[in-house]
TrEMBL record:
The keyword RNA-binding does not apply. Pfam families: Aminotran_4 (PF01063). The keyword Transmembrane helix does not apply. Keywords: Lyase. SUPFAM superfamilies: D-aminoacid aminotransferase-like PLP-dependent enzymes (SSF56752). This is Aminodeoxychorismate lyase. One of its GO terms (molecular function) is lyase activity. It comes from Microbacterium awajiense. It comes from the Bacteria. Belongs to the class-IV pyridoxal-phosphate-dependent aminotransferase family.
Length: 295
């Protein structure tokens, strides 16, 4: 990723209302070191983040991303983010994405420096990686046991399942394991046999003409891209739904997609031994929609 711009944010209280928040932003050189060695985000992965897709400098679905940032902050006992301040930071940073084509805005809220008084926060702009191949040729997936049953998120909220924390080491390890097994990506399955999500994307299956996604109650992230796609599919008259999906659902589907803010819709070619035909026309129209300005 080519970093183009970075901004340190001095987080203000959630109820701090002012004309603008520019004086709480400090642009920094993205190629220079910037974090203290005491940063808990780097020492412990103790913080949260959001990755927002940007198309022709338009940041996509900012409201949904900021809502999820606030949800992750609540789960992690971080201070409530001031969403007006964060929205202004997104707008400021998105302006530094490529004028035409795809970019990425990343928001990070960390617990801060060890023994320090305040959380640290920053936002970056970068060019998006080229995802055209995954969008066209699709991905193969290997199912991997996530090791948690479906009731774990409510039984053990301290595991922070459902928060978008900076601790993605497990997710990255799952992708490496999937690759060792000859697949492109992983699909997490709960210990009691229910389909969850990929390490960096939501799952949508088409079953009997209905578009289904695993219910976010199972300790998965509620994907902003999946939410946006469901809105679109419903407007086009398609039926959508959230389901607690046993692994057997995979064999009943006739198509599937991984969905995320940067890769957008990658059609699924196979999950383990189950193969799908790629619906190239529908996939292209989904990605065309996902690349149009969305709020
Ligand atoms: N699930 C996980 C674990 C993710 O990391 C992501 C995105 O990074 C998603 C789902 C998809 O979320 P979104 O569509 O908001 O990018």
């Amino acid at each position: 990723m080519t970093w183009r711009f970075a901004l340190v944010i001095d987080p203000v209280a959630a109820d701090d209302e002012r004309g603008g928040y520019r004086d709480t932003f400090t642009p920094i050189d993205p190629s220079e070191p910037a974090l203290s060695v005491g940063e808990l985000s780097t020492q412990r992965g103790d913080g949260i983040f959001e990755s927002i897709g940007v198309v022709d400098r338009h940041p996509q679905e900012v409201g949904a991303h900021l809502e999820r940032l606030a949800h992750s902050a609540a789960l992690c006992d971080l201070p409530v983010p001031n969403l007006r301040q964060w929205r202004e930071a997104v707008d400021e940073v998105a302006l530094r994405c490529p004028p035409a084509g795809e970019g990425v805005v990343k928001l990070i809220l960390s617990r801060g420096v060890e023994h320090g008084p305040a959380p640290t926060a920053w936002a970056t702009a970068a060019e998006a990686p080229d995802n055209s191949r995954a969008r066209r040729d699709g991905v193969s997936l290997a199912t991997l046991d996530r090791g948690y049953a479906m009731d774990v998120p409510s039984r053990a909220p301290w595991l922070l399942l459902g928060a978008k924390t900076l601790s993605y080491a497990v997710n990255m390890a799952a992708i490496r394991e999937a690759r060792r097994r000859g697949a492109d990506d992983a699909l997490f399955v709960s210990a009691d046999g229910f389909v969850l999500e990929a390490p960096t994307a939501s799952l949508v299956l088409r079953v009997g003409g209905r578009f289904l996604t695993p219910a976010p109650t199972g300790g998965i992230l509620h994907g902003t891209t999946q939410l946006s796609l469901f809105e679109r599919l419903e407007a086009l008259g398609h039926e959508t739904g959230y389901e607690t999906m046993p692994v057997s659902r995979l064999a009943e589907a006739d198509a599937g997609w991984l969905l995320s803010s940067i890769r957008l819709a990658a059609p699924i070619r196979a999950v383990d031994a189950v193969t799908y035909d790629i619906d190239a026309e529908l996939t292209a129209s989904i990605n065309e929609y996902l690349l149009s300005p969305r709020d």
